[in-house]
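Record type: ASSEMBLY
Status: queued
Input:
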Amino acid sequence: MAETTAVSEEFLRQLAAVGEVDIVVGVPTFNNRETIERVASAIQVGLTKYFHRDRCVLINPDGGSTDGTPELFKSASVSDFGMLLTANPLRTFHRLTAPYHGIPGKETALRSLFTAADLLRAKACAIFPPDSPSLTPEWVEGILRPVYREGYDYVSPVYQRRKFDGLLVRALVSPAIAALYGARIREPVGGELGLSGRLAAHFLRQDVWEREMPTFGLEIWMVATAIVDSFRLCESFLGPKIQATKQFGQDLGGTVRQVVGGLFQCMDMHAGYWKAREGSQPLPLFGFQYAVALEPLRLSRRGILDAFRSHVEQLVPILESILTPQTLVELRQVAQLAGNDFRYPDELWVKTIYEFAAGYHRSAISRDHMLQALPPLYRGWLGSFILENQKADLGKIEERLETIAHEFERLKPYLTDRWDTETGGAR
Amino acid sequence: MAEETSWYKDAVIYELSVRGFYDADGDGGGEFRGLTLKLDYLAELGVNALWLLPFYPSPLRDDGYDISDYTNIHPAYGTLDDFKMFLDEAHRRGLRVITELVLNHTSEQHPWFLEARSSRQNPRRDWYVWSDTTDRYKRARIIFSDTELSNWAWDPVSESYYWHRFFSHQPDLNYDNPAVREAMWEVMRFWLEMGVDGMRLDAVPYLVERESTSCENLPETHDVLKSLRARADRSFPGKLLLAEANQWPRDVAAYFGAGDECQMAFHFPLMPRMFMAVRLEDRKPIVEILQSTPAIPDSCQWGLFLRNHDELTLEMVTDEERDYLRDEFARERRALLNLGIRRRLAPLMEGDRRRIELMNGLLLSLPGTPILYYGDEIGMGDNIYLGDRNGVRTPMQWNGGWNAGFSAADPERLYAPVISNPVYGYQAINVDSQRRYSHSLLSWMKQAIRIRQSTRVFGRGSMEVLDPLNHRVFAFLRELGEEKILVVSNLASQAQAAELDLRRWKGSVPIEMSGGSLFPPITERPYLLTLGPYQFYWFNLRRL
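Status: finished
Output:
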C-alpha cells in the first residue's frame, strides 16, 4: 500500500481527477527552465504516437524551482500533431505538477511518482530526466513498450556513447553489477528508465525512502532490488545520448562518490544474494541498434594523470586503511610510471574497487572519507585507459570494456575473501 | 421566429420503417394500416414526430432508397389512401410526419431512367449523367466501397456509362437540367400538399457534379436546395427540410445557408464521438467536435442520433479514431460494413443498461433535436448475419408471442427473420414485457423523453461546456432565458467524483429533474458531485 503522505493534498486532488491510467511518466525537475518545454512536448508526442489509445499522465515532481519550470511544464503543448507526423490524441492528455518541499532530491520525486503510479493503478511507469537534449518521442516508446506490451518490469536504456563517455559506469558500475548480481546491464544510472506498475508498488513498500540514499544510488538500488526480487529486466536501445549541461570533470568527485557509494550500499544490503551468484547473463535488448558519427569526448589526460599522481601520495594514510599492502604498493608503483608507459592494470583496478567495497562494508574508516579517496584513483584508471586507447575505435573500446568486465567476474572470489575478512587494509 | 414554424426544435423524432413496424394484414411485412394501429404506442412513448423510411414503389434493392415512382406507395405498404389515413391519425395524436425525399438518384427501374437509356436522342436522356468514358469526375470518392468499384456503370442499352454515387442500380439525376429540378419540386409539392410535415433530403451533398472537384457540397448543389426551400416556404410555410449530409460540421453547416436552405441537418461527426467518449471514458472527443461545430442560424437545428437504419458510419473520424472504433465496437468483424459498423445501440453497448441510458441521456440533452431509431427504446438487438444493413432493420418486437407480435404470417414469410437469440430475442426484449414494469428500459425512455419535453431549454437553449478536472465527467449547462439546466454525466465504468466551478450560479439550488430531489445550494466553493458508473444527472438550477 502506498504511503499517501508522500504526496500533498493538492496533488492527491489532481490524481483523483485523473483516475485510473495505463501509463505514468515522470519528469523530476529543479530549475530546468531551458529544457523542460522541449522535454515535455517530446514525451507528449511520444505518448500520442505510440500509446494513443492508452490512458496516460505526465507528472512533474518539482523540488522548488524558482525559475518557473513547473509553469512551463504545464503550459508546454503541441499545437499541431499533424506536422509532427502524429495523429491527434484520442484522449485527454493530463499534465500534473507535484511540488514538494525540502531538499530537492530524486528520492522524494521518485517516491511521489511511484505513489501516483500505485494510486492510479498504472500498468507502466517511465522516468525521464528534464534536461536531455537527445530525448525524442521514440525514446518514450523504447522505454515504455517493453514494460507495457512485452511484460517486462524494468527497462534500462542503452545509448550510443561517444568515445570515452560514461566510463565510470561502463568500467566500474556496470561490470560490478554483472559480476555481483549476474545481469549485464549497461546503463544502470542512465536517467531514463521504465518500470511496471507492480515493480513501482514493490519499490514503494521497501524501507529505503526514509534513509539517506545517494542520488545515483537510488537507481542502482532499483536495478539491484529488481534483480534480487526476481523481476524481469531488459534493455532498450535509444540511440545517441548527448549530455546537456554537464562538462566532463565538473564535480567528477561528487559523481564518483554518489555512484560508487550507491553501489557499495547495495552490495552491503544484498551480500547474501551476490555471494551465492556465479556468472552473468546479458539482458534482452529491444530496439534497432544504429550508429551515428559522434564527436569524441575531448579529455586532458595530462591533467587527469597529474591529479592522480599528486593525490595518491597525499592519500596514502587513508589508503592504508582500505587497501591491502600489496595493492597499495602496486598502486604507488603505477603512480610513478611516466608518460606513455603509464598503465593502470585491469586486475589492479578491479582489486582496488573490491577492496574499497570491502572497506566500505567494514566501515574501516568513515564511509564518507573513504568515498572521497576514490575519485583520484578513478582519474588514474581513466588516464591510463585514455592513453591506451587513444587510437582505438568504438569497437575496440567495447572489447576493452568487455575484458574489464571479465576481470570483475574473475576476481569475484577475491572480493568475497576480502568481504569476509574481519580486518583489512595495510595497517 | 414563429414558434409554429420552428416546431422541429422541440421535437423528439422517431425513425421507423413501415415495413418493419407492424404487419396488420399478415403478409409478412408491415404496412401503413399496421403502423396506424401502433400510433398510440408512439404517442405513449412521448415522441412527437415520425420519420418514415422510404415507402415508395421500388425494386427494393436498397431498402426503398431506389425509388421507381415518387408519388405513390409501394403496394406492399398499402395505398395512398392508407397513407392519408395514417397521416390524419398521426396528426390527431400530435405526431408530425417526415418522409424521405431521395433527390440524388432514382432506381434504374424508374420510368425516367428507362426512357433516358432507351436512346441517346430520348428527351429524358439529359435527366441523368452520361459519359462515353469513365474519365470524368475522377476526384469523386466511391461511397459504397465494399460493393462498387467505380462511380460509372455501363449501360448496355444505350452503350454508354451513367453516373451513380451509390449502388450502380441507382443512377444519379442530372440537376444541371432545369426539368429535373422542376420534376423534383413537383414531387415535394405532392407530399407537402397532402399534409406531410417535413422531408428528409437523402444524400444531398452529391446532387451536382463538376470536373476537378470531389463532386460534393458544390455551390450549385446549395443553389438547388435553396430554390426548393424558397418554393416550399412560399407554398407550405413551416415544413421541415432535413439534410442528410455525412460531412464535417463546417461543410454541413453550409446546408443551413443563411437560414434559407435546410432547417435541420444531421450532426454526423458527433455520433461516433459519443460512442468513442463512452468507450474511452473521456469527454475529449465530444468536447472537441462541439468546439469545432460552427454556430448556425437561429432558425436552424442539428439533428442528433445514436443509431439509424444505416451502419454506424465512420466516415467523419480520423483514421486512428476509425481503427479504434472498429476494434472496440466490431470485434466480430462481420459487423463491419463499408467504413462503418452495422449494429444497433444495445449490442454496441454490450447490453449494458447503464450505458444505454447514458447514451440516450446525452442524445436527449445535447443541443439539437434527438432522433430515436425504432426498437432502440426497448434495447432491440440486431442480426449481423443478414446482408448489407438488413440486420438493423428486422421486425419490431411487440411481444413474446408468434413472430414477436409483429405479424401473423408464417415465420418463413417474414421480410426478415425476427431476432431470436437468447440475449436480444423477442422473448426477452419486447414492448409488452417492458410495459409491465416501471423500471424497464422502455419505461425509463418514456420518463427521459417526458423530462426532455417538459422544458424548451433542451431544444432551444444555449450550451456552455464546463471543464472539471476529472475528464471522465462531461458537464455542461443549457440555458434559455431564466431557465438553466445543468447536465453532468459520468462516462466511466467506475464511480467518479467531480468538482464543478458553478460560482456564477451561486445561490441557485440544483433540483434533480427525474425525481425532484433538492441538492445542496451552489456557493463560492467548488461544487462536489459523485456519480456512480455511467450515471448522469439533469439539474434544474433554480434561484430561490
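Annotation: Chain B touches chain A through 22 residues (CB under 8 Å).
Annotation: The CA atoms of residues 511 and 517 of chain B lie 6 Å apart.
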